[in-house]
Amino acid sequence: MAEIIAKRRLAPQITLYEISAARIAQNARPGQFVILRLSEQGERIPLTIADFDRERGVITIVVQEVGKTTMELARYEPGDHILDLLGPCGTGIEIKQYGRVACVCGGLGAAPIYPKAKALRAAGNEIITFIGAQTAERFVFSEELAAVSSEMHYATDDGSYGHHGFVTDVLRKYLESGRTVDKAIAVGPVPMMKAVCEITKQFDIPTTVSLNAIMVDGTGMCGGCRVTVVGEIKFSCIDGPSFDGHQVDFDELTMRQRFYRQQEQESMQRHVCRLGGIE
Length: 279
Ligand code: FES
Fold this sequence. Notes:
Layout: E1 2-11, E2 14-20, H1 22-27, E3 33-37, E4 45-53, E5 58-64, H2 68-73, E6 81-82, E7 84-89, E8 100-106, H3 110-122, E9 126-133, H4 142-148, E10 151-156, E11 163-164, H5 167-176, E12 183-187, H6 190-202, E13 207-210, E14 226-229, E15 232-235, H7 236-239, E16 242-244, H8 250-257, H9 261-275
Parallel strand pairs: 8-9, 8-12, 9-10, 10-11, 12-13
Antiparallel strand pairs: 1-2, 1-6, 2-5, 3-4, 3-7, 4-5, 13-16, 14-15
Helix pairs in contact: 3-4, 5-6
Bound molecules: FE2/S2 (inorganic) cluster (FES).
């Protein structure tokens, strides 16, 4: 059992939780994740660790209400306990001195990219952040990222803040202007990460992506999170979730992400009906 000690709404349907989890905080590295379960029969969902404080024994996760479990979690308050919290899982990313690093994130990807940007900055890198969201009010972790970045570049789908359009347009313009970066990391929706990799490949910039493959057990046993990297099968939960973006088969990943869409929608529908007293 892990106690929620703080909860803060960051944007509509997006909430930050601080959870007391001393051993996870002690061992966490940027890029790792936890697996959470709310009830004995509940599904296991992977959530990236957005921050950790070893002294306080606290980890931070940021959750968007997109399905049954995340909607259920939204009703939890400080003082409530999460039944199971497993982690830290995954391999994390390599933190070393590259020089200038472009951190490209979209939507909720800003939260998981933050500990990476912070650690890369602490390792002596210059951080240039490219952050995208649907609207100005849906930016998350932009202040935290600004605190560790030399430059912030914003984009919104509706043009309410920064560039009107994709964050990848901004990245492309930046690179086409002749400015250089030595390394890129990208976290966000699969089409965004795929687009980032297409751009950085043209400019020969090594790029690490964080894949949000569907996970079930999180231990390398079920095969649910299978991805193809350099023609080889890898499991996101134990081999990743960070991979060389230029080697990932994004088309296969996109297809696999659609596998359970119908079941997810049905499960969410049942949950919404229960909350509304229909079932
Ligand atoms: S989640 Fe089952 S193998 Fe990775």
